[in-house]
Amino acid sequence: MGIISNMNPVQWPHIRETFPTLHEDSGVFAFHVLSCRDKLVKPDLRIYALAFGKACAQSEGALLPGECVFIDDREENVKAAEEFGMRAILADESGPWGIARNLADLGVLLPPADYYPPPVVPRVPSPIRGMA
To answer: SUPFAM superfamilies under this entry (predicted)?
Structure first.
């Protein structure tokens, strides 16, 4: 499983700190394709090709684009992934349950909820002295 992100170099470190499972060493995501680093932006088909190459490198055998599922909240990005040959899901107001249902419809079952490590929520000091 990997990430394709159009985040800019200012946003990415903040997002990564907010959601520790996005860290490269979290064990959740095998690869990251980042616009700010890889100089490609969705919906450019080359970004999907780069992600597919990384997915192939991480897999135990050869993959076909149709064996990959891309999830995004922008229709133009979903259409581009489909044009590349990936299966794709448009994330909408149905939220994570809708995504899980769409994945199940594609034959992709999610691991149990306790598979992932619990998120680490950074402790933010209170602006009021003496309050933790």
So the answer is: HAD-like
* Residues 88-113: tens digit of each pLDDT: 999 988 888 888 888 989 988 877 66
Packing angle, helices 75-84 and 45-58, rounded to 10: 60
Tell the residue number behind the tokens 């780069």, with chain if given: 50
CB atoms within 10 A of CB 29: 15
Complete domains list, the chain, with CATH: 2-108 (3.40.50.1000)
Banded pLDDT at 78 (limits 50, 70, 90): very high
Write a three-state SS string for the chain: CEEEECCCCCHHHHHHHHCHHHCCCCCCCCEEEEHHHHCCCCCCHHHHHHHHHHHHHHCCCCCCHHHCEEEECCHHHHHHHHHHCCEEEECCCCHHHHHHHHHHHCCCCCCCHHHCCCCCCCCCCCCCCCCC
ω into residue 43 within 30 of 0, thus cis? yes
